[in-house]
Design goal:
By secondary structure, the chain is mainly alpha-helical. It is 53% helix and 7% strand. A hairpin with a 2-residue loop joins strand 3 and strand 4.
Length: 118
């Protein structure tokens, strides 16, 4: 499949050739989908055209993704070990503390979410 993405020529020139820009766009999208758990390691490897696991490992390491990320079909969900990012449990606790202390016109966050689904 070919996807066309409009990109201003004056900015595109800063990022290298058309092929380089295309490759970087594919890598960025693939990495984001992998981090979000919508791609498995084998799917990521295939999408990026890597023929060996060490190539994929190097790609992930170079982008700050250490360890396994839960994939779309993974049986053991794990989280990427991203340097400088809080652990998922910390984020949940911080969100719960925030939600407990904040309302909007007397509605709690969960009520706002529920309202948005109607």
């Amino acid at each position: 499949m070919t996807v066309l993405v409009p990109f201003p020529n004056d900015l595109a020139a800063r990022f290298g050739s058309e092929a380089e820009l295309g490759r970087r766009a594919v890598e960025a999208l693939a990495l984001e989908e992998y981090r979000a758990g919508r791609l498995t390691r084998p799917e990521l490897q295939h999408l990026l055209g890597f023929t060996t696991e060490p190539q994929l490992d190097r790609f992930l390491k170079d982008r700050g993704v250490a360890g396994e990320v839960s994939g779309a079909k993974s049986t053991s969900p794990q989280v990427p070990d991203l340097v400088g990012h809080p652990a998922p449990g910390d984020l949940v606790a911080r969100f719960q503390a925030f939600a407990a202390a904040h309302t909007l016109d007397g509605l709690e966050i969960k009520d706002l979410i529920r309202e948005g689904r109607r």
